[in-house]
Design brief:
Elements (H helix, E strand, L loop, with lengths): L9 H9 L1 H8 L9 H10 L1 E2 L10 E13 L8 E13 H10 L6 H10 L3 E6 L11 H15 L11 H10 L12 E6 L6 E6 L5 E2 L6 E2 L18 H26 L4 H6 L1 E6 L11 H18 L6 E6 L3 H9 L7 E4 L2 H8 L17 E7 L5 E7 L10 H4 L9 H10 L1 H6 L3 H8 L2 E3 L6 H10 L7
Parallel strand pairs: 2-9, 9-10
Antiparallel strand pairs: 1-11, 2-3, 3-4, 3-14, 5-6, 7-8, 10-13, 11-12, 12-13
Helix pairs in contact: 8-10
Bound molecules: zinc ion (ZN).
Length: 470
């Protein structure tokens, strides 16, 4: 997510839009505009009352937010760069927070906040970038591929169990692909082509040994399936590749936690997962070359939700929260017209008419290649506005009448819980740009690596009187 200082300052904005040639050009363009009073009224009518329910909210929240950086290795060789992606992943206990709030009369104990920050050691994935080659590798691209696969293989929930790695989660997701590249077997996946000789469809296994292209014998890595290597260059900035990796890993991590709980707690997984919610910064979508994974995530969630239902539990609560971007900007434009305590599921028609008027509508529906969640506009009782997304409640977008069904409120069994949860956190989420930071700022939070404490902490949830229910 961009930070404030990344935008151009006001002076340069003023200079640009007042340049006569640019002003003339802008007049010829279509873009989002502020609605008239009448239009605003009509928009207000599209919103519905927030669904009410007295369901129990999850006590544990995992908030995930990534960032990436690229930096020169030394000042004197500025174009020789390393990059890294950092993923903050925080577990917040609402129960502990409530106690804190009562004890401190709504003020936060600065020592406990300091403790939270101390615990917040995000996962860092370093990458070679412009003009940096790992020993034994031929170029930046091969070095980048090697580093990515190693990171995913070595980030494990249980250190001595390779099948608890992020890479194994990637195998699960890749095996769920439809068409030629799907395997329906989580022990193997297919990469679409060899990065060295372009041989098509190579099958790889979830094993520790290095694997080789059957044609050119060059190393091939399971994570080549994400196709991020295609955007790696030898001598220029690799910020595109880094941002793609950040985006895709932010979405793989919740699935990773869900998979680990499902596998290691086969008796009590439904209780543990129903007491847990995920917040991801940004829309529920994966962009660029790894975008295919959005469909696998949707399919995986659908399978898990089916299991949850068998145990009498609702769908997994995975919430994408958007602080910036077209939809958030648009909502600010119409905010004045919308009544409090209302919600609206954005339809494709609405989006193409008002939010992205310059885009040709896609016949398959908005975000067909990228999105796995529906965007909602929410205005709370206190008048704060949020853009959030919930996963589409279907296994795939080929469901009948998908474009219509995806905006039907009654299809989202966790909608009211999501709204209640956002309202519960609303003061903190509203002001701040980064979800985990916003949460950690005021809440008792414990940072997680995909390894270490997550299983202990989550399993405690089930021990506290919940296990016996299953
Ligand atoms: Zn090859």
């Amino acid at each position: 997510m961009p930070y404030k200082y990344e935008y151009a300052d006001k002076t340069s904005h003023f200079d640009i839009v007042n340049n006569p040639e640019i002003a003339k050009f802008i007049q010829e363009c279509d873009f989002m505009t502020e609605p008239s009073g009448d239009e605003g009224e009509r928009m207000n009518e599209l919103f519905v009352n927030i669904p009410q329910s007295d369901e129990v909210l999850p006590e544990k929240i995992i908030a995930i937010d990534g960032s990436y950086y690229e930096a020169s290795v030394q000042n004197r060789i500025p174009s020789t760069k390393v990059g890294y992606v950092k993923i903050g992943s925080l577990l917040i206990d609402r129960g502990q927070y409530r106690n804190l709030r009562v004890l401190n009369n709504r003020f936060v104990d600065p020592f406990r906040v300091a403790k939270v920050q101390e615990n917040n050691s995000p996962i860092t994935f370093p990458f070679p970038s412009s003009n940096i080659v790992l020993k034994g590798k031929k170029n930046v691209r091969d070095s980048f591929r090697y580093a990515m696969d190693k990171h995913l293989y070595e980030h494990r929930t249980i250190k001595n169990k390779p099948d608890s790695s992020l890479r194994t989660t990637l195998f699960y997701l890749a095996s769920l692909r439809t068409g030629e590249l799907g395997t329906d077997d989580p022990k193997k996946l297919k990469i679409h082509k060899c990065p060295s000789c372009e041989k098509k469809e190579i099958e790889l296994y979830d094993i520790p040994e290095e694997q080789y292209c059957p044609s050119c014998k060059s190393p091939v890595y399971p994570s080549d399936c994400l196709r991020i290597w295609e955007e790696v260059t030898d001598y220029q900035s690799n910020s595109v590749a880094l941002s793609r990796f950040m985006n895709v890993i932010e979405h793989i991590i919740p699935i990773h936690y869900i998979r680990i709980v499902r596998e290691y707690y086969s008796e009590s997984f439904a209780n543990i997962l129903s007491n847990l919610a995920f917040f991801i910064d940004g829309p529920l979508a994966v962009f660029g070359n790894p975008a295919w994974i959005h469909a696998s995530i949707l399919r995986y969630l659908n399978k898990i939700n089916y299991d949850m239902k068998r145990y009498g539990k609702g769908s997994i609560l995975l919430i994408g929260l958007q602080k910036s971007g077209h939809v958030a900007e648009y909502f600010k434009l119409i905010d004045n017209y919308i009544n409090n305590n209302k919600i609206f599921a954005i339809t494709d028609n609405y989006r193409y008419t008002y939010i992205t008027p310059n885009n040709e509508p896609s016949s398959n529906g908005f975000g067909y290649e990228t999105y796995y969640g529906q965007d909602f506009l929410l205005k709370t009782e206190s008048g704060r506005i949020f853009v959030f997304a919930l996963p589409y409640p279907f296994a795939s977008k080929t469901e009948k009448n998908f474009i219509y069904e995806k905006t039907k409120y009654s299809n989202y069994d966790c909608l009211s819980k999501a709204v209640q949860l956002i309202k519960d956190f609303e003061c903190d989420l509203y002001e701040n740009a980064v979800v985990p930071v916003a949460l950690a700022h005021k809440y008792t939070a414990i940072s997680l690596e995909p390894g270490t404490k997550v299983l202990d902490l989550l399993s405690q949830t089930s021990i506290k009187g919940l296990t016996s229910e299953v």
